[in-house]
Amino acid sequence: MNNLDRPxxxxxxxxxxxNHSNNIDWVAFSEQVDILCASxxxxxxxxxxxxxCHNQTESEFDKLSxxxxxxxxxxxxxxxxxxxxxxxxxxxxxxxxxxxxxPNGFQITLPDWWPPTLNEVKNFTLGMEEVAKNxxxxxxxxxxxxxxxxxxxxxxxxxxxxxxxxxKCAGGDQDxxxxxxxxxxxxxxxxxxxxxxxxxxxxxxxxxxNVACLxxxxxxxxxxxxxSDIDQAIEIEKKINxxxxxxxxxxxxxxxxxxxxxxxxxxxxxxxxxxxxxxxYDSASPEDTKKIAKIAHQDLPELFx
Length: 305
Prior knowledge:
By secondary structure, the protein is an alpha/beta fold. The chain has one domain (9-229): Aldolase class I (TIM Barrel). It is 46% helix and 10% strand. The protein has helices at residues 26-37, 58-74, 88-98, 118-131, 151-160, 174-183, 196-199, 211-214, 216-228, 230-248, 257-268, 286-299; strands at 9-13, 43-45, 78-82, 106-108, 137-140, 164-168, 188-190, 206-208. It has an eight-stranded parallel β-sheet with strand order 7-6-5-4-3-2-1-8, covered by helices on one side. Helix 3 (88-98) packs parallel to helix 4 (118-131) and helix 10 packs antiparallel against helix 12 (286-299). The protein is globular. The chain starts with 8 loop residues before the first strand and ends in a 6-residue tail after the last helix.
């Protein structure tokens, strides 16, 4: 993917293995990156919600970004670096010092300590573009953001910020996708992994996938299946959503979205990542992980072939 090319496909999050001292286990982290680089995923990315972007020190941020950039480049794996921070000046400094790694894109979130006005959104995104050295920007605008941009607002922002090539958002219904197709041509729209089968025929370009937390290769398989056997892909996605609603959503009463994603990853068993989150956040228990792992492998065997 060359500069300003638009990302597509299924991308997997780099997660943080946590040791008993409540620190990142860097040996396990490195092993995990190797596994994801060897997977069928179209690309990998750092510092999304699942990767505890909100709870890293700057030294941890720099170290994990360097490891991922080195290993992805060595293995010819597409990679994006997330630079999100509630302080926009720190986010800009992060982006500026990581341009030498030449990622295939930078993921950014809007400043979130106080809801920014649309003019402040423009100021921020243009400021990030100024230091990005022609590396594409992807805006991560999750449902819990204090400012959720409409399709019209995204279209306007994109007309101003040349290097903004995509957005990660919640997606919508058929009417939403129709408007997306009319307004955002040659622009990548990424939606949640459990809705990408519904979304791709309507205009979704891929997913920074929660399903990839559970099974990286399984999530990539479903994307391919949309082209070869859409009916089977729809059936698998229905099963995934039943699984999510019945067994994962109930944990949202006590766990953050990060906790849910790490529960999925630990239950998937594809790498050295447990359900544990960095202090002070609550995690699922090892017993919960074992239970979800058993159910996932029974109910969604297609993901683990």
